[in-house]
Amino acid sequence: MDPAFIEHKPDIETGTREATIKFLEGIVNEVPEARWEIVRSVADDDLVAVHVRFRLAPTAPEYAIADFFRVRDCKIVEHWDVVAPPSDKTGNPHPRF
User: Which domains does the chain have, with CATH numbers?
Assistant: First the structure.
């Protein structure tokens, strides 16, 4: 992460690099079985997007996450995300992943 990194996730107070690191370290420490699986990725110029399957534990329901990163000189300089919680709805025959 670039020293001037900007975070847009509303859960992260101040939106700074240090606050983001603290937030992610907290997840890893509090939920050590959590897993992120990148299902697909897309890049366009300085923007990279990843579609992620996230689970708090191996058998837990899955979240769908879309992370968007702006990169410069091989460092992340900005981040946005969209998180869809687990869903029990089955009307759509097409899966999230």
Answer: 6-84 (3.10.450.50)
Longest dimension (CA), the chain: 45
Query: Would you say residue 54 has pLDDT above 90?
Result: yes
Contacts of 69 (CB under 8 A, 6+ apart): 47, 48, 49, 50, 76, 78, 79
SS3 56: coil
Cα(66)–Cα(3) distance, integer angstroms: 23
Residue 91 has pLDDT above 90, yes or no: no
Q: pTM of the predicted model, to two decimals? A: 0.89
